[in-house]
Structures are given as structure tokens and as C-alpha cells.
Design brief:
With 232 residues, this protein is α+β, with helices and mostly antiparallel strands. It has 2 domains: 4-36; 75-230, Sandwich (Protocatechuate 3,4-Dioxygenase, subunit A). It has helices spanning 8-36, 176-183, 201-204; strands at 75-86, 89-92, 97-101, 121-125, 131-137, 148-155, 166-173, 213-217, 220-230. Strands 1, 2, 5, 8 and 9 form a 5-stranded mixed sheet that branches. The chain is globular and about 50 Å long.
């Protein structure tokens, strides 16, 4: 008489169950690895433009000129992760000085062209995970440019493992459909011809790889982006 534990049908079912479980675990492991793995690509560099000001104002909330009310606009929580890209993969880059600046809802930059203040400007040092976080507002627009945010990264020789300083400047762009929605309401809505992504010279030079990943967050949006810097 065959023992129940060694019955061929039972053994076969056990084997299939174990194989199925192993397959699920394997798929889950691969999916987890894909989710956790950084976007290991080099970020396109773009022009600094005429509006950079080295304010040396280290802060995370950049919505206001110091001592003044915050600029009106749709809230934007911006999270950037700085990564060092090598042939073997990506690693977080700590200690990078990250400047962010952009125009207000009316298309005005602070500190240039006779405009006072330091609103919508600030800098942060990337943490051990390579991250910096800024609280801002959704940028407005001005003639000739699509909606965008400027950023600059700098590192001193002491902060860089390679013993060399670096500087990298680029811009971030926004989904056209979300632009249409945000800019149709106050305080953004105004007369004039707005430049869309596809007509913007900066966007045509790699802007599709510089789009912020946006998700709704409260009354505004949260945007995330990985900045990949080639390490030599």
C-alpha cells in the first residue's frame, strides 16, 4: 500500500505548487529590482539662460522673498535625486549644491531686469541619498519659452570623491496637458501667445528627457526627477 505522503499525484501537485511559488517569487524579485533601480542615464545639459543669480540662499521653501508673503500660485513640491553615472551603474551623489530658480505666475524672475527680491530661488545640499527637496509654485510663462524650471549643480573638490570640482546646468519641463490646466486659471491666466513644448528651442534639444514626473498632491502637484551626472 502506497503511503499518502508518497502518492504520485500528491507529489506532482506539491512539485507544481513549489514551482509556481518559485516563479512568483522570481517575478516579484525582478519587479522589485526594477522599481528600486534608479534611472541610470545621463541627464541632458541645457543653457543657464540670462536669469541665474547666485543668491547663496540655502532653504527648501523658495516661494517667498525673505520677509515677504509667498508668491501666489499652484503649490509644487519638487524632489530631485542626484546620481553619479558610471559604466557599472548609478550611485547617489551626496554633497552636491543644487540651485533651483524659475519665474513666478506672471512670468517674472526675481533679482534681474530691475526686479527686486529673491523669490523662487534657493539652494540645497544633496543628502546621503542624493536628494534635495524644494517647496515652490508651478512656474508661469513668458514670451518665447515653454514652462520650465532651471537647476544648477556644483561640487567642490573636497566634496567630490574624484577630487575634482564640477558644474552642471539644465532645465526641467512640464506635461503640456497639465500646463494647459494650470495656466488657464488665476493667477496664471493672461492674454498673450504662450509657447508650447513642441515650439520651444530648449525642449527640442532634449526636453523629452527632462520632463518632470508629476502627481496630484493636495491643492497642487509633486514633481520628481533623477539627475544623472557622468563620472569620469
Amino acid at each position: 500500500m502506497t503511503k499518502q505522503g508518497n502518492h504520485p499525484d500528491i507529489n506532482r501537485r506539491r512539485s507544481l505548487a513549489l514551482m509556481g511559488a518559485a516563479g512568483v517569487l522570481s517575478l516579484a524579485s525582478r519587479a522589485f529590482a526594477q522599481i528600486q533601480a534608479p534611472a541610470c542615464t545621463v541627464t541632458p545639459q541645457q543653457t543657464e539662460g540670462p536669469f541665474f543669480v547666485d543668491t547663496r540662499l540655502q532653504r527648501s521653501d523658495i516661494r517667498a522673498d525673505p520677509g515677504s508673503p509667498a508668491k501666489p500660485g499652484v503649490p509644487l513640491a519638487l524632489s530631485l535625486r542626484v546620481l553619479s553615472v558610471t559604466n557599472s551603474g548609478c550611485t547617489p551623489l551626496a554633497g552636491a549644491l543644487v540651485d533651483v530658480w524659475h519665474c513666478d505666475a506672471a512670468g517674472v524672475y526675481s533679482g534681474v531686469d530691475g526686479n527686486a527680491g529673491r523669490f523662487l530661488r534657493g539652494q540645497q545640499l544633496s543628502d546621503r541619498d542624493g536628494r534635495v527637496r524644494f517647496m515652490s509654485i508651478y512656474p508661469g510663462w513668458y514670451p518665447g519659452r515653454a514652462v520650465h524650471v532651471h537647476f544648477k549643480l556644483r561640487g567642490s573638490p573636497a566634496a567630490n570623491a574624484g577630487g575634482r570640482g564640477y558644474e552642471f546646468t539644465s532645465q526641467l519641463y512640464f506635461d503640456g496637458g497639465i500646463n494647459d490646466k494650470v495656466l488657464a486659471a488665476a493667477p496664471y491666466a493672461r492674454a498673450g501667445s504662450r509657447t508650447r513644448n513642441e515650439s520651444d528651442s530648449g525642449f527640442r534639444a532634449g526636453g523629452s528627457r527632462l520632463l518632470l514626473a508629476l502627481t496630484p498632491s493636495g491643492a497642487g502637484y509633486a514633481g520628481t526627477f533623477d539627475i544623472g551626472l557622468r563620472s569620469t
